[in-house]
Amino acid sequence: MPYCPNCGVWVDETDRYCWNCGIRLEDYGIGVRRSWQPSRIPSVAPPPRERPTSITVASILFYIFGILSIVGSLIAIGVGAVGAAFGGMPIFGPAISFAGAIILILGLVSLIISVLCIVAGYWLWRGLRKGGVLGIIICILDIIMSIPFSAIPVFGAIGVISILIDIVLVILIAIGWSGLSD
Questions:
Q1: What confidence tens digit (pLDDT) does each residue in 42-70 have?
Q2: Share of the chain above pLDDT 70, in %
Q3: Helices and strands of the chain, counted as H and E runs
Q4: Whole-number Å distance between alpha carbons of 37 and 60
Q5: Quick check: 159 and 147 in contact, CB under 8 A?
Q6: Does 117 score more than 80 pLDDT?
Q7: What DSSP letter does each residue of 106-125 carry, written as one string?
Q8: For residues 29 and 90, what is the distance between their CA atoms, to the nearest angstrom?
């Protein structure tokens, strides 16, 4: 079975166009049965590298983690905005306003990290080493941010689970590191 000379994917000998990039294969002598051989055979790209399974799993986890984190971040931003708006209440007003502002800021930071999780997942899905680097940085930042939450009784389980997921992600990236390309 021949390869597409443009993008390197497998194509059928009877295909007229590459199913991946759309290039006309007849121009390269693929897809048409000829009784004569061209004088010069065009160079064909080697088959693409296969993405390691650990990188595929890490990519999917980053997507899931990023989407769930975006939902949590938006909730935190909403709660923080409401809390910050209650600054005029007597007795507890300033404390609620301050706590709301802190929650709002943490929600915004978490939203940025959530979007970066999705970017890391996308880059890992494409088999790019920069996805692994970004993923490891995100995991380290998330561990640092989760340690204080794991000490709070209400959020303790969430913090511990988040730390465990980060450790699993770093291990998955380390296992598949050699299969990533620049």
A1: 666 666 668 899 999 999 999 998 999 89
A2: 80
A3: 4, 0
A4: 46
A5: yes
A6: yes
A7: HHHHHHHHHHHHHHHHHHHH
A8: 82
Give me Rg for the CA atoms of the chain. 25
Cα–Cα distance, 131 to 124 (Å, whole number): 5
Q: Apex CA 82: angle with CA 78 and CA 86, to 5°?
A: 165
Q: What are the tokens at 42?
A: 């065009």
Hey, is 150 helix, strand or coil? helix
- In the chain, what are the domain boundaries? 1-48, 53-179
Amino acid type, 147: I
For all residues of the chain together, what is the average pLDDT? 81
**What tokens were used for 105?**
């800021």
Q: Is 36 exposed, middle or buried (0-12, 13-18, 19+ CB in 10 A)?
A: exposed
- Cα separation, 59 vs 180, in Å, equals 12
Kindly state the tokens that stand for 66: 């990023």
Residues 122-169 have pLDDT tens digits of 999 988 999 999 999 999 988 887 787 677 776 677 778 888 999 999
Closest CA relative to residue 167, chosen from 55, 60, 58: 58
